[in-house]
Write a structure and sequence with these properties.
By secondary structure, the protein is mainly beta. Helix content is 3%, strand content 48%. The chain is globular. The chain starts with a strand and ends with a strand.
Length: 128
Amino acid sequence: QLQLVESGGGLVQPGGSLRLSCAASGFTLDYYAIGWFRQAPGKEREGVSCISSSDGSTYYADSVKGRFTISRDNDKNTVYLQMNSLKPEDTAVYYCAAEGLISTVQAMCPIEKIFGSWGQGTQVTVSS
């Protein structure tokens, strides 16, 4: 059974850094789009960043470009999200999701309903 488990969330001060991990089990990340999504209180869930397990191509939302970096380790079946220069508006529950590649990650990532497998989420709070 396909399972995604996130870790690495927590409380950090503005300007700080966190690294989220998404460990996949029950399938190998051979031809998947794996993404990080977030949902803040009262807001819709949005795509933050995605990566193709096939060619490593990436997508970033405009709000995180230059601050967040997504990467993958196919041997460990794990995807990471390095978050630097964190802002209070980055506060949200962060979810990892995966879906078979049906298009480019640039096309898939903004449409969270495309993704069929989800982790349980990890809280990220940016506050002084």
